Amino acid sequence: MRILITLAVVIAMSATIVLPSSAGDDKPIPAKRGVRYGAGVAEGERVALDAAMKAKAFGRSIRVTGTVTEVCKVKGCWMMLKDASSIVRVTFKDYGFFMPMDLVGKTVALEGVLSVETLTQADARHYAEDAGKSKKEIAKIVGDQNEYSFEATGVVVL
Questions:
Q1: Average pLDDT in the chain
Q2: E-state strands within 18-106
Q3: Distances from the Cα of 158 to the Cαs of 26, 36, 46, 120, in angstroms?
Q4: What's the pTM?
């Protein structure tokens, strides 16, 4: 019995030591060429974001490329992707992975599904807050907002 109690105490102490060190695992590794996030991106044809938008490649899995213009400042839970004339909000499948802040300005390839979404006023304001917009800018967001979105299963830095 004494051995079981001692073992339980050792396990409990180990958990308190291990848990704090793993608490920072949500932080993604810094963005460098070849770094993959999520499931990565399969080999094969990748099209520019503009081409996918012009082809109206909505609702099916595709691979696109573009430049990251913004990353959620709170946790890296979304990013904005731009090409010559197109811009989309990228979220990550099942909130399964996050982007580092140093991804802004880098070219990436993504795999996932492109769609058109209607954001509620509350969601649009939430995204603006996550982006670090001022209270005055956020207050100007009135009504539902239509935007293009991309739910990524994986991202790779090019």
A1: 85
A2: 36-38, 47-48, 61-71, 78-82, 87-92
A3: 22, 10, 12, 33
A4: 0.77
29-40, pLDDT tens digit by residue?
A: 999 999 999 999
Place of tokens 């913004």: 70
CA distance 149 to 89: 5
Pairing mode, strands 145-157 and 87-92: parallel
| Rounded Cα gap, residues 86 and 14, in angstroms | 50
Domain ranges of the chain: 31-157
For the record, the structure tokens of 130 come out as 């996550």
Q: 18: buried, middle or exposed (CB in 10 Å: 19+, 13-18, 0-12)?
A: exposed
Distance of CA 83 to the CA centre of its chain: 17
3-state secondary structure (DSSP) of residue 92: strand
DSSP annotation of 58 reads B
Residue 13, pLDDT > 50, answer no
CATH topology of domain 31-157: OB fold (Dihydrolipoamide Acetyltransferase, E2P) (2.40.50)
**What are the residues facing 48 on neighbouring strands?**
65
